[in-house]
Amino acid sequence: MKSLYVLFKPKPLPAKISIPADSRALPAESHFISLIHACNDTVSLRRVHAQILRRDVLSSRVASQLVSCSSLLKSPDYSLSIFRHLREKNLFVFNALIRGLTENARFECSVRHFILMPRLGVRPDRLTFPFVLKSNSKLRFRWLGMALHTATVKNCVDSDSFVRVSLVDMYAKTGELKDAFQVFEESPERMKMESILLWNVLINGYCRACDTKMAKTLFESMPEKNSASWSTLIKGYVDSGQLNRARQLFEVMPEKSVVSWTALINGFSQYGDYESAISTYFEMLEKGMKPNEYTIAAVLSACSKSGALGSGIRIHGYVLDNGIKVDRAIGTALVDMYAKCGEVDCAATVFSNIKHKDILSWTAMIQGWAVHGRFQQAILCFREMMYSGEKPDEVVFLAVLTACLNSGEVDLGINFFASMRLDYKIEPTLKHYVVVVDLLGRAGKLNKAQELIETMPINPDLTTWAALYRACKAHKSNERGEMVSQNLLEVDPKLRGSYIFLGKTCADEGRYQDVEKRRLPFQKMVKERCKGRSYIELDGQLNKFSAGDSSHKQAQEIRVKLEEIISLAIERGYVPGADWSIHDIEEEDKEIVTGIHSEKLALALGLLRTAPGTAVRIVKNLRICGDCHSLMKHVSKISQRDIILRDARQFHHFKDGGCSCDDYW
Fold this sequence. Notes:
By secondary structure, the protein is mainly alpha-helical. Among the domains are: 267-356; 357-409, no CATH class; 429-520, Serine Threonine Protein Phosphatase 5, Tetratricopeptide repeat, CATH 1.25.40; 533-659, no CATH class. The chain starts with a helix and ends in a 6-residue tail after the last strand.
């Protein structure tokens, strides 16, 4: 005991923890328990623990409180240390430890200590099983789930409502829905009538398995529903992509909760209906409902994906006006929104005000600098992250490599790529290899790029060969480009861009008969993938366009304006359609070849609806094609306007006839 006291003695007790000066009067257990509850960090808790050892009052009641408190303070290792040094390990201490380990995501350790109980002659009770069952829900061990179920029967606690709910939830989350339904069916009728939670966990299980039909059947059979019941089914519809059904159910929901609003907003954002996500959020505010941090993060995600800067600023204003803490979740979402909406310096300001930065917030800021081509700031931010003690992960390295790519920093990019495996034991993914191939290709190091593809430990996919393809096009390496196109066809025989490239190559070399041979399979095998979309926010409203779109209420005016600017651009040397297939073959076939690309329509509307001298901001979900890129450069000079376009890879800042990407993207 003396050695433990010496170990914990060095620092004085905090002012709020008072120990009686008269050591002859031993404090009661309740006094030390109150001191334990007053601790808000492990340093204070260790000092109280030291005094408990000194007074020799470490009863099982006090010990269970020490274990619980250390678990709440996110110190499971300290909880385990307390447990190991206990002479008497009873049910209360075991329950506190198993619960704490589960809540700190130490699931295997939680199960191991449950298995230890009978070996020490301790019998689990109804408070033990819910947490060990929750641990197995995360571990997803079917055999263990059945063994735990058997143990609940053996210990006569399987009829307890909390245990029964935990069993259904465990079976559902381990993918054993038949067993979950059987446990539910075998539950006493009284429990089914009284426990809404029992129904909710089973409905959630079917929703997670995308069996919304069965989930709906259960929902309609419920004797009583609460807000969570409605929200669970709404989220189930959202997760399975049935947004219309989710919206219909939401409309008839008697009392809409913040959870149901958030599920709907998140669903619209997740499936690309950004206009509905943003409008639903503002409708929520009009109804007097207060959003939580998840709601705000979800709607800010919709703003960042669509470039809705005005809406994002309004949401930020709401956060500040209502005293909502800009913590990691909201702070990261704001950083991401400002960066992706073109205001990276605003993103940096928000980032600097986040007190407790995590890996996600650092990544968002580094990625923000990277897509804007601000290489120096991206690397500086990465170094600051390292100095802060945060370890980089594969996503951070992807952001850093993107910064090197967009700035042409080849040697440094290769060093970072090598450092992943050598210094941080992080295996590069296919995305990392694609960026490095692109980096080498941009610098004209086509041999090294091809060598990397052929020696990489992962099978190259469409995007990998396409990165080399773009480099061959940019550096006019037609012979290598044709070879790369053959590889592209092996990966995806229906790929349109390959046929276009091979046809153009043959035509350039005068092999017109080969062009005709290419044309037939091209016509037969073209398939349309996810269509390209462009967004422009004007007067607080998000406008969406697809290729050849004529659904906008100003469609006629847009066409007239577009014809006007194309005519003016032609006078300045623009050649329509001469270069549209140059850059992004794995994505360009997502837009109709003969249609007017969506970014041109967005540009025309922007010029129509904004005042002279105002920057036009456009967001596209794919990479901009060569034809549109060429037109944007000419229009920026003709109109004396800045055109800021974010595509799937980076920002293009068109000004005075040039682009910030230096015509390589």
